[in-house]
Amino acid sequence: MSQTTFTPPAASRMSPKELRSSMSLAAVIGLRMLGLFMIIPVFTIYARTVPGGENAATVGLAIGIYGFVQALFYIPYGWLSDRLGRKPVIATGLAIFALGSVIAALAHDMNGLILGRAVQGLGAVSSAVIAFVADLTAEANRTKAMAMVGGFIGISYAVAIVAAAPLFGWIGMKGIFLLIAVLAVAAIAVVFWVVPDPGVKPVHHKAPFRTVLHNPELLRLNFGVFVLHATQIALFVVIPRALVEAGLPVVHHWVLYLPVMGLSFVLMVPAIIVAEKHGRMKPVMLAAIALLLAGQILLATMPHTIWTVAIFLLIYFLGFNVLEASQPSLVSKLAPGERKGAAMGVYNTTQSLGYAVGGAGGGWLLAHVSASSVFTVCSVFVFAWLIVAATMARPPQRARAEAASTKH
């Protein structure tokens, strides 16, 4: 019973340096993801105006190749950052990402866009940034730092989804790609001039990947993030075109996305509070996965009017936002201290593979089968995830996890 009244010790409070480190590194990822997410709602519409863009499978490849390349380079970037230092490796990756954005901006056909997206994927700095967060924060505060990173990503996603269509109408897709390059350069400035340097070079413990890969709870989370991002990207292969066909011009898509994203974030907050503070993470996660499934089934089976798409997206993104915020924190809690980097590396890799499979697979299904088949296949994947997640062990509660960390 004493565990229920546990009060975290003062040492678990983040120091000013830890707070600055976490927020600045979260901003680095947020700036990069802000630009990346801006592409999602408008790319399939833009592709129709580019030679080769009439083929939905090619468009899906252009969306998904970023994830394929990024998945290959997460671990090498983390390895290099251990040996060459975090800041130079992160800055180099961001510069490569900016270069890919410029290549895409200057492209005149789908081949050029695919090349630009592939080069963007070469700047896979997330694993190095997460390792840097671990360098600059105490073990007891690492979950809080990871939550800040997840929060910045969530905010970036919401802003990008809402802002993409107006920006597309104002500066076009080429302008968006150039804006992405500018945001990457701004992130480089944050790395060098805002992120503090570690006072003492951290000791890096070898992280045996087989141990991480044999952990059934981490495997469930890895499968989950794969499905989460595969279904999200596949959804946006179809939805922008569906909205245009329903009578909503692309420059006005923000009118739908703004209330959907805003309301889904407001409704997400009490769910996260219940999950974290009251030890209800498993039922909240299962409910969120069920919402994903309901949204995909409705999109697969019901007519696509502006109002129905808005309702179905609200259902889907309520579940999506809860899972996007809670899963990285769970990875951090479930992985042993010296293996958090390895666990996050595998998690980020499967996330990128989901991004890639969702883009390429969604494009292929749209081109060769139908729009509804995209949502049907996504429904099957989400249902499989629901079954897998139903067998998960009860995740550790925050107070218990912090109490356990103070004993070692």
From TrEMBL:
PROSITE patterns (alphabetical): MFS
The record lists the membrane-crossing segments as 23-47, 59-77, 89-108, 114-134, 146-170, 176-196, 217-239, 254-275, 284-300, 306-323, 344-367, 373-393
Q: Name one GO cellular component term.
A: plasma membrane
Subcellular compartments: Cell membrane
Q: According to Swiss-Prot or TrEMBL, what is its membrane topology? A: Multi-pass membrane protein
* Alphabetical list of Pfam families matching this protein: MFS_1
Give the UniProt keywords, A-Z: Cell membrane, Membrane, Transmembrane, Transmembrane helix, Transport
Which CDD domains does the protein's record reference?
A: MFS_YajR_like (cd17472)
Q: Cite the Major facilitator superfamily (MFS) profile domain residue spans from the record.
A: 23-397
Q: What is its main location?
A: membrane
Q: Which residues form the signal peptide?
A: none
Which GO terms label this protein's molecular function in UniProt? transmembrane transporter activity
The identity of this protein, by name, is Inner membrane transport protein YajR
> What is the organism field in this record?
Pararobbsia alpina
**Gene of origin?**
yajR
